[in-house]
Amino acid sequence: MTKKERFAFVLNYFEQHAPNAETELLYDNPYQLLVAVILSAQCTDKRVNMTTPAIFKKYPDAESLSHATFDELFPLIRSISYPNNKTKHLIGMAQMLMEDYNGEIPDSVSELVKLPGVGRKTANVITSVIHHQPNMAVDTHVFRVSARIGLTTNAKTPLQTELQLLKYIPEEKVHIAHHWLILHGRYVCIARSPKCGECGIRPACKYYKTLIKGQ
């Protein structure tokens, strides 16, 4: 199976079985999604969703968050990974939004990455989810799943993975393909003991082919 054929098989499978895949982070607007994605770094979406309601209630927009102090915000995200840094990032992000963007969330990766706490992955998530731009956010799930299936070859960094995926995924499908790969990695192609027995991608998966050969 060529790489082009492998991509076609995988994308077709997901289109049939997960046509409405979307982020599991709960949000009502771009500001809330940005806060949630910043908090989700090295933390589960489930934990973030348990934490954000109190934040959004007290700080419903960038303006209110920009006036928060560390001691006021920290208790609300104490249970999140790296709470010290993320508290500083959220306040700094909100302050920059007010100072440079009139409180509006930028719609480009180049502008988003200027915000405290926002790296390329976070910026790709925001522009992909909110604006359906063809940007591929690569987290640990996407990185692992892409390599296992054989969608990427010898990709050593998230950026290398991103560029290889973008080469073969049609632009109009990139924004949802991001969710397909994440959810597949979260629930089926898990890090330890992937659930190959219930995976519909087996016919196109390099990892499964190697597994069978080894039996």
Automatic annotation (TrEMBL):
<feature type="domain" description="HhH-GPD">
    <location>
        <begin position="39"/>
        <end position="187"/>
    </location>
</feature>
<dbReference type="InterPro" id="IPR005759">
    <property type="entry name" value="Nth"/>
</dbReference>
<dbReference type="InterPro" id="IPR003651">
    <property type="entry name" value="Endonuclease3_FeS-loop_motif"/>
</dbReference>
<dbReference type="Pfam" id="PF00633">
    <property type="entry name" value="HHH"/>
</dbReference>
<keyword id="KW-0479">Metal-binding</keyword>
<dbReference type="Pfam" id="PF00730">
    <property type="entry name" value="HhH-GPD"/>
</dbReference>
<feature type="binding site">
    <location>
        <position position="196"/>
    </location>
    <ligand>
        <name>[4Fe-4S] cluster</name>
    </ligand>
</feature>
<dbReference type="GO" id="GO:0006285">
    <property type="term" value="P:base-excision repair, AP site formation"/>
</dbReference>
<keyword id="KW-0227">DNA damage</keyword>
<keyword id="KW-0004">4Fe-4S</keyword>
<keyword id="KW-0456">Lyase</keyword>
<keyword id="KW-0326">Glycosidase</keyword>
<dbReference type="InterPro" id="IPR011257">
    <property type="entry name" value="DNA_glycosylase"/>
</dbReference>
<keyword id="KW-0234">DNA repair</keyword>
<keyword id="KW-0238">DNA-binding</keyword>
<dbReference type="GO" id="GO:0003677">
    <property type="term" value="F:DNA binding"/>
</dbReference>
<dbReference type="InterPro" id="IPR023170">
    <property type="entry name" value="HhH_base_excis_C"/>
</dbReference>
<dbReference type="InterPro" id="IPR004035">
    <property type="entry name" value="Endouclease-III_FeS-bd_BS"/>
</dbReference>
<feature type="binding site">
    <location>
        <position position="189"/>
    </location>
    <ligand>
        <name>[4Fe-4S] cluster</name>
    </ligand>
</feature>
<dbReference type="GO" id="GO:0140078">
    <property type="term" value="F:class I DNA-(apurinic or apyrimidinic site) endonuclease activity"/>
</dbReference>
<dbReference type="GO" id="GO:0051539">
    <property type="term" value="F:4 iron, 4 sulfur cluster binding"/>
</dbReference>
<comment type="function">
    <text>DNA repair enzyme that has both DNA N-glycosylase activity and AP-lyase activity. The DNA N-glycosylase activity releases various damaged pyrimidines from DNA by cleaving the N-glycosidic bond, leaving an AP (apurinic/apyrimidinic) site. The AP-lyase activity cleaves the phosphodiester bond 3' to the AP site by a beta-elimination, leaving a 3'-terminal unsaturated sugar and a product with a terminal 5'-phosphate.</text>
</comment>
<keyword id="KW-0255">Endonuclease</keyword>
<dbReference type="GO" id="GO:0019104">
    <property type="term" value="F:DNA N-glycosylase activity"/>
</dbReference>
<dbReference type="InterPro" id="IPR003265">
    <property type="entry name" value="HhH-GPD_domain"/>
</dbReference>
<protein>
    <recommendedName>
        <fullName>Endonuclease III</fullName>
        <ecNumber>4.2.99.18</ecNumber>
    </recommendedName>
</protein>
<keyword id="KW-0378">Hydrolase</keyword>
<keyword id="KW-0540">Nuclease</keyword>
<keyword id="KW-0411">Iron-sulfur</keyword>
<dbReference type="InterPro" id="IPR000445">
    <property type="entry name" value="HhH_motif"/>
</dbReference>
<feature type="binding site">
    <location>
        <position position="199"/>
    </location>
    <ligand>
        <name>[4Fe-4S] cluster</name>
    </ligand>
</feature>
<dbReference type="GO" id="GO:0046872">
    <property type="term" value="F:metal ion binding"/>
</dbReference>
<feature type="binding site">
    <location>
        <position position="205"/>
    </location>
    <ligand>
        <name>[4Fe-4S] cluster</name>
    </ligand>
</feature>
<comment type="similarity">
    <text>Belongs to the Nth/MutY family.</text>
</comment>
<keyword id="KW-0408">Iron</keyword>
